[in-house]
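Q: I'm a student working through a structural biology exercise. My instructor gave each of us a protein and asked us to get a predicted structure, then write a short paragraph describing it. Mine is MerR family transcriptional regulator. I'm not confident about reading structure output yet, so if you can add a plain explanation after the tokens, that would really help. Here is the sequence I was given:
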Amino acid sequence: MDLLGSYPYVLIELYLLFKIFLYKSGCISLTNNETYDVLTIDTVSRQLGITPRTLRYYEQVGLISPALRTNGGHRLYEQDTIDRLKQILRLKDYLGISLQEIQEVMEAEESLKDIRKTFHENAESADVQRVLVNEYIDVLHNLIKKMNSKIENVVTMRDRYQEQVERSLHFMDELKKR
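A: Happy to help. First, here is the predicted structure for MerR family transcriptional regulator. I'll explain a few features afterward.
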């Protein structure tokens, strides 16, 4: 169902507010199997385990596109934005990278997507496709280079901590001899 295209915006707002009311009152629950065309900021923040303030900040700094708004000013998030947020959180949690680095990765991935699209649109021109594949490879090499740099920094930090552990264990052995 294309909720945004089928109903006037005020009905969407009423529907979502009613759905929120039912959810907050415990009459219904949201499951991972349910799909909605749009979700409110509270629902998205609960679903992803982040605060509404974080969502607003990510929007402010350009990590996610501006949310749709109801006539009452409530933010509504589409599934594409929620998927992007999940990817941002994975990058942040798993790789421990800054928001600036996340922005760079997201831009690179968007560039890769655009290159793939242009590649398929130019199926008849091998010359254009060769140029696009080279561009694709360059973007990937840049991503790998940034990740390798991050990995080297983490390995260096780990090695320093490992050296401290070894010195401490040696010191502990010396103390036992006294």
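A: Here are two points you could use in your paragraph. The two ends are 77 Å apart (CA to CA). The chain has two domains: 1-95, 97-178. It's a good idea to check both against the output above yourself.
Q: Great, thank you!
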